[in-house]
Prior knowledge:
There is one protein chain. By secondary structure, this protein is α/β, with parallel strands linked by helices. The chain folds into two domains: 32-65 and 347-450, Aspartate Aminotransferase, domain 1 (Alpha-Beta Complex), CATH 3.90.1150; 69-345, Aspartate Aminotransferase, domain 2. It contains 17 helices and 15 strands. The protein has helices at residues 8-15, 23-29, 55-58, 67-79, 92-104, 118-135, 156-161, 165-168, 187-190, 197-215, 241-251, 273-276, 304-317, 330-345, 348-364, 402-412, 435-450; strands at 34-38, 41-44, 49-52, 111-115, 143-147, 179-182, 220-225, 255-259, 283-286, 298-302, 372-378, 381-386, 415-416, 418-420, 424-427. α12 (273-276) links the parallel β8 and β9 (283-286). The longest helix has 19 residues, at 197-215. The chain is globular and about 65 Å long. The N and C termini lie far apart (46 Å). It binds 4'-deoxy-4'-aminopyridoxal-5'-phosphate. The site of 4'-deoxy-4'-aminopyridoxal-5'-phosphate (PMP) has 15 residues, from α6. It comes from Candidatus Terasakiella magnetica.
Amino acid sequence: MTDKPNSISAKDTTYHLHPYTNLKAHEEQGPLVITRGEGVRVFGEDGKEYIEGLSGLWCASLGFNEPRLVKAAQKQMETLPFYHSFTGKVPDVTAELAEKLVDVTPDGLDRALFCNSGSEANDTAIKLVWYYNNARGKPEKKKIISREKAYHGVTIAAGSMTGLAYAQNGFDLPASERILQTSCPHYYRYGLDGESEEAFATRMASELEELILAEGPETVGAMFAEPIQGAGGVILPPMGYFEKIQAVLKKYDVLLIADEVICGFGRTGKMFGSQTYNIKPDMMTLAKQMSSGYLPISALMVSDGLYQVVKERSNELGVFGHGLTYGGHPVPCAVALEVLKIYEERDIVAQVNAISPYFQDRLATYADHPLVGEVRGTGLIGAIELSADKASKTPFDPSLGMGAGLVKKCENHGLILRAMPGDCVAFCPPLISEQTDLDALFSRFDAALAEM
Ligand code: PMP
């Protein structure tokens, strides 16, 4: 009989199938084992300290040891550790959270449907588009448009919308011909020579319109869009983009779903990315910073108009036949309620606006660096895109792994960041970051960049 592995590292490489990891390389290299968090920092099992420059996975807005969230979870665990929302029942905190979310989200979003992850919320949104259009007597109107470099999750439907090869290769995704893709509106990368940002936005909207017309507007049900495309490389929309896109969608009666899984709750300097970019969505998906990442929870927000149609249809069918065992679970709901209370008490949006000019200014200094093609960002999110030739914007040969290499060097210097496709390095520090935290973050980044 072989001995069982003793170390955490060996247990991990022996028993754990890792998400978003090169599995073969991982077996040789082993994991970075994280055991503890404090403020904007996490600590390895060897005690090494890291600044979490991506808030974990864009979610730990309140850092890694907010005691009020621990108390909220404990209190809820002691009072009602589980209950569901099926068959007309509901935990008290779940109803409280629904009200609070309707309060904080923009006007026109009137009900919350709870799920456990961003992927589930987006899958649920697709189901509602289909249900809604069946109910409206438009059973053909089912196609869904997302964008190249979009990230909407990994479940079969959400993964079909995620426009990134690494999330689809090998999985037979996209799994449905009902999922279509329009262009990624990254002006720096895809703007033509001499084309203004505004003209680029107009071209993006024309391409969307051409796609809708080619498919037949009577077959197109909805478009999904992140206000800022996060995992695609922190891609900010060009000026005027969402105004133009929304005019096209309105013209052809196509719903717009804002995926606010990363942008929601202050990240962009307003409560929602939709407010930063003048988006008036028919539905909105929320997750991550909704619970500061402390417990899994997500929500799909819908308009009253859509709700009324769904209500009538479910009455005809006898039941609204959708629900997840843990959707609206009382413990994450209690934590999310406390998170929203903290955001309100500390005026998290004002806090982001107070610190973000410093963050963006520091980030902007890298624009002159010979390895950097573009620096972009707003609020407390940003990215640096590496480029082999500044003037021609030529990307590095992907096989060089420049972005991943830089991120590895950052890790050696005690800074966790994430490399995105196209050698973009993303920054998304906790919303509680102070100037001294950002100073430490950038000095570690400087040290890593100097070694490239
Ligand atoms: N939408 C966006 C914009 C995301 O960034 C993510 C995850 N990074 C998701 C959806 C999927 O969320 P989850 O991983 O919780 O399923």
